[in-house]
């Protein structure tokens, strides 16, 4: 998976860039350790939900009548989406079907399958908003196959999973609406296969029937035929929650949603990520608010990659899920000022806690480097956590050692206070400020101590 830097303060249109998707991925290197599996991890980011559209100017109405027509169309489509959402919430299939253009049989078939799949998903809310963002479809051949007026404004689906989402999470939708006589109907949601910023967000219910397993602290959404795996994941996630709370404290939701696609292709489609996921065991994603809004991340999900996850032993699954649940817990404090070594090192610190694995077992690649005389000079930079880094394992191991050093020498409570302080810092140097305040050291002194610790632990 390619590392993409989160563009929290970037953007020519900052007010529109309200939400960003961030993914924190666990990359698993399939190398055996004493305990069975070596786990390394890596953070990736999602594309922003919104972007500017250079075609906007073309929308400017030329006359009053045109303006009225545009307003009438928007009102009709808004009402159509309200009927669609109400039908989904009420499990009313005839009402849902009545919003579809029945001449589009392949789309109708996909939509009805999605409708059925949603039936078992516990929803607390489900609604759509039309956006004036990118409301003009390209004046091109995209709609040629419709023999009537067609329109594809950007829409946003906002929904909550009951008992798990405190606030709605947003998913972009690019429906095509067509006019049939006086009515507008939904005709497709995938008319722009080659336009990267006009892709409808997909979720597990777009890929077949959904099976739901309720744990005591978890909600697991997967597909039928995988009940054993889904139950195991629910049990492991339930067990991970108190482990994370023991270290991080109780100031988080203490529950997690885990999504279990059937294939890597499905995982990629849900993530909206076309890069190589073949080394990914699981990812943690959330919607991050833009900086300065004071709002919290929503839509926390752990998504596993079953082909890889199934290859993990019990210990590997435990470490991966505890690592991902740690990301869920710390999300509020893992803003852009927090270096990746701290985010990933902390998730691995919690992940490995209580497994009985030694430093040499956890840090095999780095230990080999140290024995060969290659001693790391500095803590890994954010770029070192790129999936393209062929020394990715060493980056995670180095980060784990950095966090473990703080916990051992200063204390676990101090480690947590330090993490929160970096996340909350507003200055130009959040890490330095938090190290001074919470650890009574400087990045330079800490790096020197860490270099010594690496050799002590691994030589
Ligand atoms: Zn991670």
Quick description:
With 459 residues, this protein is an alpha+beta fold.
Draw up the topology in text.
Elements: E1 19-27, E2 42-48, H1 64-89, H2 93-97, H3 105-118, E3 123-131, E4 150-151, E5 154-161, E6 169-173, E7 176-180, E8 183-188, E9 211-214, E10 218-222, H4 227-248, E11 256-259, H5 264-271, E12 280-289, E13 298-304, H6 306-309, H7 314-330, H8 340-352, H9 359-362, H10 364-371, H11 392-409, H12 412-424, H13 430-439, H14 443-458
Parallel strand pairs: 10-11, 11-13
Antiparallel strand pairs: 1-2, 1-12, 3-5, 4-7, 5-6, 7-8, 9-10, 12-13
Helix pairs in contact: 4-7, 7-8, 8-11, 10-14, 11-12, 12-13
Bound molecules: zinc ion.
Q: Shape, please?
A: elongated
Largest sheet: 7 strands, mixed
Could you tell me the mean pLDDT?
84
Q: Output the radius of gyration.
A: 24 Å
The distinct bound ligands, ions and cofactors come out as:
zinc ion
- Extract low-pLDDT stretches: 1-59
**Structural class given helices, strands, pairing?**
alpha+beta
What's the number of extended β-strand segments? 13
Task: Tell me the span between the first and last alpha carbons.
Answer: 31 Å
**What is the count of DSSP helices, taking H or I runs of 4+ residues?**
14
Strand order of the largest sheet: 2-1-12-13-11-10-9
Q: How much of the polypeptide forms β-strand, as a percent range?
A: 15-25%
Question: Helix proportion of residues, in percent?
Answer: 25-40%
Q: In sequence order, what are the helices and strands, one letter per element? A: EEHHHEEEEEEEEHEHEEHHHHHHHHH
